[in-house]
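thread: overnight batch results

M.L. [08:02]
morning all. the overnight job finished for the chain we discussed friday. pasting input first so we're all looking at the same thing
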Amino acid sequence: ILPHRFPFLLVDRILDLNVEKGRVVALKNVTMNEPFFTGHFPSQPIMPGVLIVEAMAQAGGILLKNYFDEGNNLAFFMGINNCKFRKPVIPGDQLIFDVQQISKRFSTYTFQAKATVSGTLVAEAEITVALV
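M.L. [08:03]
and the structure it wrote out:
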């Protein structure tokens, strides 16, 4: 569905996909063998926040490609608003992304995205994606 591949494909599984509600729930298993952990940070591995946001955008891209794309378009990340990181994500965590479409203008979509670990909010953002 997405053009991304390892090591940049950051969604492992889709748990729920609901076109009527414009919502996707996806999962990412965070493992110690992720290439970014060797440098972020060697003595205390933490998943970079920018990759958490990218993973939320990829989940939104999966929703777009499945239900709103009528051609061979790519979903391009266009913007981030109101992004907050609440807790660090470490190896062994299972990230759950809940991404809900909140607006559409032409081929540009905005999503409210939340990332949780064991039911605790770790990150949230409004993400804008365009089909190009």
